[in-house]
Structure formats: C-alpha cells, structure tokens
Amino acid sequence: MAYGLPYGMASRNFALCALIVVFLYTSLGQTPPKSEVLPEFLALLENHTVTQGRDVSFTCVVNHLQSYKVAWIKSDSRAILAIHTHMVAHNPRLSVTHNGHNTWKLHVTNVQPNDSGTYMCQVNTDPMRSQTGHMKVVIPPDIMDLDNTADMLTTKENGDLLLRCRATGNPEPVVIWRREDGRNITLRNENSVKRTARTFEGEQLHLRGIQRQEMGSYLCIASNGVPPSVSKRYYVNVRFKPLIKVSNQLVAAPVDSDVLLQCYVESSPKALNTWYRNNGVKLLADEKHDISEVTINDYAYQLNLTVRHLDKSDFGTYTCSAENAFGKMEGSIRLQELQISKPTTVSTRNTETIEKHTWHKQTEKKGKKHSYVLDKESDLIPKNVGHTTPMSRRNLSSALPNIANKSRISAFPAPAPAPAHSAPTQLGAQKPPFNGVKSLRDSRLCHVGLVVIVLMILIHD
C-alpha cells in the first residue's frame, strides 16, 4: 500500500511554491535588507531669486543611490516634473541632466512668474527622502499705458492738470515724479497754498493753478530694486495770450551803419510773428532787413530785426507783432538818427604861438607886481640879460641883497660877487623860481642894482 501524493501532484505543488517565492522576491525586491546603506544627500537644495526671462537650475547630489530613482516634483502643485532623466511634465522650458555619477540638475529656461514656488528632489525610499528649494521670480518695473493724449496734458494758464503713472512689477514698484530740466515741482493745495519739491512720490501728480513757468517735461520714474528702472515722459502744455516786452524803445544810430532791434516774446502756442514799419508795411527778409528768432525756453524767444546800411528813409517807428489763438500783442521801437560831430584839429605851430603869447602876458603882469623903485632905470639893463643861464640868474639873485646892504653902511669899494654856490637868501627861499617869469625879473633887478652901486661909488670917490 503506497502513502503520500502521487508524483505528478507533488511536482505541481513544488512548481507553484517556487513561483510564489519568485513573485514575493520580485515584489519585495525594492526593500533593502537592514544592513543596506541608504541613499543620502550631500548638499542642500539651493533657493533662487531670478529675474523674469532669465535661466536657472536646481542641483541635487545623492550618494549611495543604488537602484533607487531620483524624481523632481513641484511641491505647491504636487506635479511630477521628471523621474531620473525622463521628463513627465510637458513643458519645453524644463529639462533634467545627470552627470553619470551622483548629480542631477533640473533646468528652467526663460523663467516666468508662474514658475515661482517650491521644488523637491525626491528619492523613492521607504520612507521617502527629499530636499526642497524655493524659487522666487522677480519682475522689473513697467509703466502701463493709460492712453493719455496730448489734450489731457494741456490747459490754460491758472488751470489744473492730473498726471497719472501706473507701474507694475514684483516687488511692487515705487513711483516718483521730477522735472526733466531739474527744476523744482510747484505743488498747490485746494487753498492755493504753494510749496516746491525736488521730487514727488505717488502714482498721481496733481498740478493746480498751473503757470506758464511750470510747463515742460515731467518724468515718472518707477523702481523696485530689480534693474532696470523705467521712466515715462509727460509734456505739460500751458496756453496763454502772447506777451511782448521791449527793453529799448528808443534806438539811435548814425547813417550808413547797421542797427539791431529786439522784442522779447512769450507765447503758447507759438505765435505768428511779424515786423511792420510805421506806415503799416510788412517787412520781409531781404538784403536790407535780416529777421531771426532766438529760442529762450519752451514758451519764450527773442525777435531780432537787423536794418543794414541806414539811410534817412530808414528812421522812424518799427512794430513787432505776435498773434496766436488766444490773442495778439504788439511792441514799438523808435529808430532815430544819431548825429556825430567831426572833431576839430589845431596845428602844433598855432598851439605853440598861443602858449608863448600867454607866457609873455603873464610875464608882464608879474613884472609889474614885483617891481621896486629901480623900475624907472630898467632901461639901463643890457639886452642880453634875458638870455642868462639859470645858474647865473640864481647867483645874481643871491648876491644882490648883500651888495645893497654893504653900500649903505660904508663907502668902501664893492666887495667881490658872492660865490656861485652861495646859499639862497630868505627871499629866494620863500619864493623859489618855479617859473621863468620871476627868474628873468630878478635877474634884471640884480643888474640895475649893480650898475647903480658902481655909479654911487664912483661919484663918492
């Protein structure tokens, strides 16, 4: 009697057990034995702040990966982007690279705002291991077009204007206003209280009671720390009636010269400018007249009229006229002839004759004034006395008082003349011979006195 299962049946059971063991081994093959070294990350997943449009990549370094797989997941949306080097997400801007060892990279090109968020590098262990990194997409500022037309930036003088500048970006931009020419911005409140500022912060700039000096270009500048900053230019127009100022209302010039006539004009919009004569004739640019304009600022300029080779018919009144849609203004300039007298020339010979004649008259007057009793005998003076040298005249003048005094005291012969370099007398010290008239007169008196003294000595003897 035989015991046990038939041989065929035992073979089938053995095969079934073998299949179950193989299945279990295959199914549980991903679970490592307790002695297996698990994968580990060598570095943290970095965070990125990237400007829109740039490229960025996350790097994940894993050691001891063995048969495990690396996957990339966007955490906030729980979307699987890639497993190993196989892309799952259908996004052409995403890609994954592997260096063949332990480094995986997730590349994002042309970064867009919706790419911001948390990214995860994951290894499918049990439990799962992962690292996360955050990407922040920043956007440079941009100024929106609010369809401001030229009419919206134009007003009459003393009117109001509202300038709006809306900026976008991430982070939110700061908007400031300033004038393009660097001058201060004039701000007025509802009560017309005025203040000035270099810059103004805010998306809206309200210009109240605006004046002609405030017209020009204003800049709206938006910045948020992400380069580049952007700006937009707003041109403010202020309309008003022309104004004319004439600094020189009366101009004189000689015949055959050129003369420049000027009128200062303020006008917005720019006026139609014309020059007229006093008879109402409009002047045009030609060989006789040169007409030009010199711009001073956005609303002011100088009108110039040059009249060449003046003749008698050119003198009279000239009128400058400026006219625009808000009114008309005129200014007048009177041009008159400037008479230039010809200088008279006197010859050198005539001048010398006049000076000599004057000198002789002064000599005669002073001679009479300083004459003494001896004037009656002046006829005894030799004719060549007037031609003595200055040294001789000075010596004779010095000797005269001493000789006269001694002749009155005694009857001895007259002493020798005083030395040529004797000190001047008190009379000479009081009245120095500063001119030729006095010196000549003193010389004559000395000779007369000397002759009289000699005669007296001879008679006495």
From TrEMBL:
Q: Which residues form the Ig-like domain?
A: 39-138, 141-231, 242-341
Q: Where is the composition biased (Basic and acidic residues)?
A: 352-365
Q: Please name the SUPFAM superfamilies in this protein's record.
A: Immunoglobulin
Name the domain of life this protein comes from. Eukaryota
What PROSITE patterns does its record include?
A: IG_LIKE (PS50835)
Disordered as annotated region, ranges: 344-370
Signal peptide limits: 1-29
Alphabetically list the UniProt keywords. Answer: Cell membrane, Disulfide bond, Glycoprotein, Immunoglobulin domain, Membrane, Repeat, Signal
Subcellular location as annotated: Cell membrane
Q: Which InterPro entries match?
A: Ig-like_dom, Ig-like_dom_sf, Ig-like_fold, Ig_sub, Ig_sub2, Ig_V-set, Neural/epithelial_adhesion
> Which GO cellular component terms are attached?
neuron projection; plasma membrane
Q: Which Pfam families match?
A: Ig_3 (PF13927), V-set (PF07686)
The protein's name:
Lachesin-like isoform X1
Organism listed in the record: Temnothorax curvispinosus
Give the gene symbol: LOC112461603
